[in-house]
């Protein structure tokens, strides 16, 4: 008798299981759809949403399925979250397309910068094995040029600077040859290269040496042009002359004389008088300086390039210094006279004020004295009258006493009656 295998199922049984699964799935989907449709209707109908409606309990029972373990409902929620995420992603893509020209330009610039700094300057980075003019010889060359600036002839200046440049170049070339020999030694010791490749590397090292040499010479030449342009500007005669102090003293004296009769301080008029008197001297200074600048430019009209740029910059700097010095002296003399005028006027005002105060004090003192004298006279007259009355009383007593020739008692009574 054959034992049945419980793990084996017939075809009909499998079909029945599949049909049962599909039926359950369909009922669940229909239940979920009906639940969503019912919720939408409840949300739209105020009667169903109220607490007193008979459909409220049904709605709560259906809505409670969200907290259950319904796989279909959880799947729906997950799909909704996925759709929301995809919507945000599409929005980000739209923004990227909206600003794509700017972003593309920025990305392209970054790529070009990276390529330039990492790929293209490879030979230049290797060439930095040789020391550059700025870091190796510039300071020493400047010492030669500082001493050459004391020269007054252009040929002497050039010769002195050329000696300094040649001296520093020999020192740089010696150091560069040492570096190149070290590079040759490294190439010869590299066993991974054959003779042909080593020769190519040595040629590259020589090319780098030539490039570094050219850079050194160009840097030195630029420095020579710049310093020579400055030296040429300093050699030009831009001296206009010192200020004539007598002109300023005369202008200030005229302003003080014109305002001497005015008791009040009048700085506006004083400034206008002085400016008008000094306008000729100031115009002369400007015309002389402009003529000097024009002559200097004509003397160096053949300059070009960096030398011309340096010359013009140095010439403008000297012009600014000369004009600043003139304005400093001009303001000094004018302000000194102006302050003197203000001090004199203020001193006069103080004297007048003191005089007025003194007159006022005298008048007040006289009034006080007069009042005092009147009061003293009044009191003195009263006292004098009282004294006269008392004296008259004493005379009456003496007369009574003199008339008495009786006895002693009669005389005493007379005295008592007299008081």
Summarize the structure.
The chain is an all-alpha fold. It is 83% helix and 0% strand.
Could you characterize the architecture of this molecule?
The chain is an all-alpha fold and 419 residues long. It folds into three domains: 25-108, no CATH class; 121-235; 245-357, no CATH class. 83% of the residues lie in helices and 0% in strands. The chain has 14 helices and no strands. The chain has helices at 11-44, 46-49, 56-63, 71-98, 100-118, 122-127, 133-136, 138-148, 154-189, 195-235, 245-258, 267-299, 305-403, 408-418. The longest helix is centred in the C-terminal third of the chain and has 99 residues, at 305-403. The protein is flat and about 165 Å long. The termini are far apart. The model is unreliable at 1-63, 120-128 and 354-360 (pLDDT under 50).
């Amino acid at each position: 008798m054959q034992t049945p295998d419980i793990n084996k199922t017939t075809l009909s049984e499998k079909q029945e299981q599949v049909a049962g699964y599909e039926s359950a799935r369909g009922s669940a989907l229909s239940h979920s759809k009906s639940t969503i449709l019912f919720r939408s209707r409840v949300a739209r109908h105020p009667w169903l949403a109220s607490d007193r409606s008979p459909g409220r309990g049904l709605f709560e029972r259906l809505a409670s399925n969200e907290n259950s373990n319904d796989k279909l409902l959880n799947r729906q929620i997950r799909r909704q979250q996925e759709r929301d995420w995809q919507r945000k992603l599409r929005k980000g893509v739209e923004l990227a397309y909206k600003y794509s020209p700017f972003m593309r330009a920025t990305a392209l610039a970054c790529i070009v910068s990276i390529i330039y700094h990492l790929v293209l300057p490879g030979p230049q980075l290797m060439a930095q094995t040789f020391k550059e003019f700025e870091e190796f010889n510039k300071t020493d060359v400047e010492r030669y040029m500082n001493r050459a600036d004391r020269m007054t002839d252009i040929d002497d200046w050039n010769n002195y600077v050329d000696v300094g440049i040649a001296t520093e170049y020999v020192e740089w070339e010696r150091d560069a040859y040492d570096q190149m020999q070290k590079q040759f030694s490294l190439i010869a010791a590299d066993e991974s290269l054959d003779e042909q490749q080593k020769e190519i590397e040595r040629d590259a090292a020589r090319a780098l040496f030539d490039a570094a040499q050219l850079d050194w010479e160009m840097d030195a030449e630029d420095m020579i042009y710049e310093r020579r342009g400055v030296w040429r500007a300093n050699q030009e005669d831009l001296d206009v002359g010192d200020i004539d102090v007598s002109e300023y003293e005369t202008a200030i004296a005229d302003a003080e004389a014109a305002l001497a009769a005015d008791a009040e301080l009048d700085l506006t008029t004083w400034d206008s008088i002085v400016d008008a008197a000094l306008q000729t001297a100031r115009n002369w200074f400007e015309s002389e300086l402009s003529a000097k600048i024009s002559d200097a430019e004509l003397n160096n009209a053949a300059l070009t390039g960096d030398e011309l740029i340096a010359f013009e910059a140095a010439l403008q700097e000297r012009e600014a210094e000369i004009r600043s010095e003139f304005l400093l002296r001009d303001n000094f003399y004018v302000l000194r006279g102006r302050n003197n005028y203000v001090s004199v006027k203020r001193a006069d005002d103080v004297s007048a004020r003191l005089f007025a105060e003194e007159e006022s004090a005298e008048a007040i003192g006289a009034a006080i004295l007069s009042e005092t004298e009147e009061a003293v006279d009044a009191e003195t007259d009263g006292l004098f009258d009282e004294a006269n009355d008392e004296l008259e009383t004493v005379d009456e007593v003496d007369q009574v006493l003199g008339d008495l020739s009786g006895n002693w008692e009669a005389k005493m009574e007379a005295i008592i009656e007299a008081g």
